[in-house]
Amino acid sequence: MPEKVTIATVAAHAQVSRQTVSNVLNSPHLVREETRVRVQEAIATLGYRINQAARQMRTGRSRLLAVRIEPTRDGINGSVLDRFLHGLTFAAAAAGYRVMLYTADDDGDEIKTFEDLLASHELDGFVLTGTDHGDVRTFWLAERGVQFVTFGRPWDEPERHSWVDVDNADGTAQATRRLIETGHRRIGFIGWPAGSGVGDDRRDGWQRTMKAYDLDPAGLDRGAPDGIAQGAECARDLLTTPEPPTAFVCASDSLALGALQAAGGRSAVIGFDDTPVAEAIGLTSVSQPLPDAAARCIDLLIDHLDGNPVGTSQVLLKPSLVVRTTA
Amino acid sequence: MPEKVTIATVAAHAQVSRQTVSNVLNSPHLVREETRVRVQEAIATLGYRINQAARQMRTGRSRLLAVRIEPTRDGINGSVLDRFLHGLTFAAAAAGYRVMLYTADDDGDEIKTFEDLLASHELDGFVLTGTDHGDVRTFWLAERGVQFVTFGRPWDEPERHSWVDVDNADGTAQATRRLIETGHRRIGFIGWPAGSGVGDDRRDGWQRTMKAYDLDPAGLDRGAPDGIAQGAECARDLLTTPEPPTAFVCASDSLALGALQAAGGRSAVIGFDDTPVAEAIGLTSVSQPLPDAAARCIDLLIDHLDGNPVGTSQVLLKPSLVVRTTA
DNA sequence: CCCTGCAACTTGAACGATCCAATAATGCAC
DNA sequence: GTGCATTATTGGATCGTTCAAGTTGCAGGG
């Protein structure tokens, strides 16, 4: 076991005071170049690492960010959450922060966890995913002056807090354009029942694009809860109309998979989220730029923590269409 | 902003000393029942939460565990890692620990991260996933006396450290038995090339079960890197033999998916890992008990941290077969 | 010549918990 | 009532860092 190396050890080795070493680390501009170099050398020689606990106790900041990891499979999930988490961890590390996980059964439970984590001074900020209309969590945090960023915008009032989101409408617009460009004229949309911000946005993108190309979207639109069976049913329903669609834009890969089964390979289908399922079966799908989104979340959050706490920022990212064999 | 509540505030409120409050929290047996209750009430009234940073500075323990989150898609990944992480976080929280994430490009990079995290006294232990033959990381950690548990056993020397693993051979054995019981006699195995511990174990389960039922496994076995195309190719190869198999046991859902496509619905197929892909397309698959495995990892790790540091423990869990439509 | 201002650095105290050693309270036998 | 062991409680020191205030040396203005 090597000797414990503290800031005092470094100070003695470099023949300066503790505070000067601290300044080299935190406010280098206060230290003369020559001294700074000498201290840096001592740090390197001794292999000194700052003791986060001690720093945290003094400054009250832990350089730890928290993200909820969900047990369920709705909203952002599976490999989507997986890739998002990796992006967060990577971006946070680059800025000297760490990412911590927590679980919660529901929003109320999550607020209890907020209290726990904050009161024991364990962390500095939150990244929230899967925000709903009038999300209680965001109000709770804002009220207490806790810094946070959401992945997913607050649909009621866009500038209430900082967020990063993917332009869902643009995703389905790209999908619809692709189908139109490959010759389709009657393009159906299979999405979720009206009312969810994300779902409505995805429907909008399809609808607006149809109209932009002078195609009538009337009657080509079905809504059902997420699921393969539901997607299949919607597709069958649309295919038995007098003028059936020749292609489908779907609000999720699950719905798309159902549509694909129902159509038996005779319709073009595009899904949403680019899940492993899509990759596995060659489903063309709209892909969210998750690493980028994660990095922007961290940027925003750290901006709030380090810098100007006034005002909020919003970032809207464009998804991209991953063309495979189904469209 | 409410007043800051420290152990001193609680002590004053309950008319005892700081040390007594500390004892109530850490060594309740030293405190008289009556006093203990009074202190607990003061804690509840004031909403006191222990300051983790201060505790950590004194005790040198952070109550933080770390897990690597991988960018790539091999080994344990996607929704598998997702579910495992949730299990870890949940189990850790129950024991008063938190889970932190870190990234690394390769094993060497990971060891550099170990150094960083440990030197700054940021965490107490590691959960490693995806261990290889003669994993350098485990040697490095063991050498330094750092506590860790792996999910996946060290194939060279089982008792070198503590681990939790799923009985892969039992999984393919269950799959093979299921196929035999539903009337199949010629059952092929599509796995990875020999040499990986997990892959060889999965092949073993199939082979042993075949022999146990007096069925000859000779010539029914193919190996290829993981992937849908590879699975399809192996299946086609097996189907063109003089006595082709009527069913396939596969080492992964990806390989199974390929086999399914190649067989065109005329063969029974069973995959491994019960990924969302399997659920989506109705693929029968072997499911790993991830929440349970995660909980056992945490149990073992915390045992090592809190209690007896002597000896290692091993836990082998049985997977279960999720029967869907393909077998 | 004194005072002010500045840069570069030093010193003592504080953050909030736990550990340690010493003290006070209690019970019991003689 | 005294002595002694047992248990419960106390005050002080401590972990490693940063904050606030202070010291030193030197240049320039009045």
From TrEMBL, chains A, B:
SMART domains: HTH_LACI. InterPro entries: HTH_LacI, LacI/GalR-like_sensor, Lambda_DNA-bd_dom_sf, Peripla_BP_I. It comes from Asanoa hainanensis. Gene3D superfamilies: 3.40.50.2300, lambda repressor-like DNA-binding domains (1.10.260.40). This is DNA-binding transcriptional regulator, LacI/PurR family. Residues 5-59 form the HTH lacI-type domain. It holds the Pfam family LacI. One of its GO terms (molecular function) is DNA-binding transcription factor activity. Keywords: DNA-binding, Transcription, Transcription regulation.
